[in-house]
Amino acid sequence: MRLPGLTGVATLAWPLLVWLALRHHVALLLPLALLFLLRGWLLRHQAGPFNALSQRLALAGAALCLFSLLPGQQHLLLWYPVAVNGALLLLFGSSLFSGIPLVEQLARLREPDLPPRAVRYTRRVTQIWCLFFILNGTIATFTCLHGDMALWTLWNGLLSYLLIGLLMAGEWLVRQRIRRAA
């Protein structure tokens, strides 16, 4: 597996790695911090709408790992999913008020001349993602405050990913239906 792939897998596996680090061996936090720093470094010359955000989140992940090494501060590590949801909400939400919504920007990469109906649809999809990030971030915050590692890992390591997949699949199905009707 190439290095960028490894750092991407580590990012997706974050909840499981956090659980392992906090449950079994806090020394895993240093390699996790290094993986985040490596991810940020690898992203520095890549282009894309999520690149700057991904770099900042990698640095935030590294910082949370390092601060969690301090005595009595291991709980800081749990806040990474909250930071991710907040950052994505800001990215998607701000695009609704400043020009072209993010989902429309992504759609125009494949189809530069979107019809008005598709423009309205992409705005709605952007709004739905904003609602998702609010809901997911709220539940992630609750799991941090509750302090139950099993609950935190279940939500942030499984259920939220399943919901993301369902939302993506549902949006894809709706988009196909709309395209056939056009």
Automatic annotation (TrEMBL):
Keywords: Membrane, Transmembrane, Transmembrane helix. This is Putative membrane protein. The chain crosses the membrane at residues 12-38, 50-70, 82-103, 124-142, 154-174. It comes from Duffyella gerundensis. It comes from the Bacteria.
